[in-house]
Amino acid sequence: MSGANFILLINLSVAGLLAASFMAVAFHDVGRVPARWLASGYLLGMVYFAIEFSIPAFTDARPAVVAAFAVFLGATIAFNVGLARKYGIATPWPPMLFFLLAATIAVYFVQDLPRQSLARMMAYQLPYAVMQFVGLAIVWSSRQSRGRLERILMAVLVASGVQFASKPFIAHALGGWGANPQAYLQSGYALVSQSLGTVFGLALALLILAILVREVLADVTSKSETDTLSGLLNRGAFTRQAEQAVLGAMRQGVPVALVIADLDHFKSINDNFGHASGDRVIETFAGFLREAAARHHVAGRIGGEEFAIILPGANLAAARLFAEGTRSAFGALPIDGLPPDNRCTASFGIAELHPSETIADLMRRADEALYLAKNAGRDCVRASAGLGGEWPSNAIIINSRSG
Asked: Which PROSITE patterns does the record cross-reference, listed alphabetically (predicted)?
């Protein structure tokens, strides 16, 4: 068995393993359409390698050569469809299918040219190179193209496209690709070509797998950090992200404020109208927080009916406006499942971070302010006392209440 035959068998096995890997990702999440397309691409790669391996057995190898070309070009197209689905790019089906048909017809007719002619070799390899650069364009045009893995992927696609385009010249330098299709696997060019195919095919697959696994892990992390009912961060995730937001604000020298809110008389809502109505109240209030929050804010559900939001760049006055706006809007909103005249309210405690404080100190003072709001009759906003329990000179006490 020649070295090229051995590498061809390795490529066949590797393509099968990679197809299985992408199918495993697809089965993990049935919504991962890109993984299914990528698996299809590597399954077609297996078919291609099987045809290449069987070509010496044919007396007339032309049909097998053309079929192998069409199958491998189809594999690159399936790979690009997977990339397009992954990065949210519209799949250019008509031009790609036309390209597949036109390139296959061209390869069929160039079989009449001298086997070692440059035109024949270019007709066979350039379509593969074109598909690599189409894949590059897909990744480049996506919003995620500046990610580290995406940059590496684009570099490998460029290198892969260049190696396909250079193969006719490599074949010429190595004395051609065999006197006939049956002799191809005995040539030095076949050994180089199949080796390059192994390197680039494996590199592209591993990069895409890393990107898909990165997303799977991100989904798992997001689900583990998200409160399922409210859609906000759970307490642990809120604390971690709030600490990061506070540290970032301190480095930038900007103020940080914390708002803690508690739904008023929530137990009575559950007791009188059922837990489904209570869940809708939580969902509605969480929706208010999401809509009011800016991208750099951190919002979470830190207890049964208790919520918190960190406001980097906001002082006590800004936190007051945020809390008051949320309080008044929520109190005026009818909730599905509750009587029309029944309005839900919330109490708010606010605090601004002092230079010597930690996030735990800030949360403690905001919680004390919330306690004051509840003692004041609920449905109001209260600001925290200063350090050591003293009210700072610029403290804001809000007595506004509906009803």
From this structure: GGDEF
Is residue 398 domain-resident?
Answer: no
pLDDT tens readout for residues 86-121: 999 998 889 999 999 999 999 999 999 998 899 999
**Percent over 70 (pLDDT), the chain:** 93
Amino acid identity, residue 91?
T
Contact 272, 266 (CB under 8 A): no
Cβ atoms within 10 A of the Cβ of 54, count?
A: 12
Cα–Cα distances in angstroms (integers) from residue 56 to residues 51, 196, 261, 353, 371, in the given order:
10, 22, 76, 77, 85
Chain centroid to CA 401: 43
Statement to judge: residues 216 and 247 lie in one domain: no
Catalytic residues: 305
Indicate the DSSP class of residue 338: S
Distances (CA, A) of 289 to 49, 76, 239, 301: 56, 46, 17, 10
- 401 is a domain residue: no
Residues 378 and 278 in one domain: yes
Q: How far apart are CA 288 and CA 200, in angstroms?
A: 50
Q: Does 291 or 1 have the greater pLDDT score?
A: 291
Domain span at residue 239 reads 235-389
Alpha-helix residue ranges (DSSP H) falling in 310-396: 316-331, 359-375
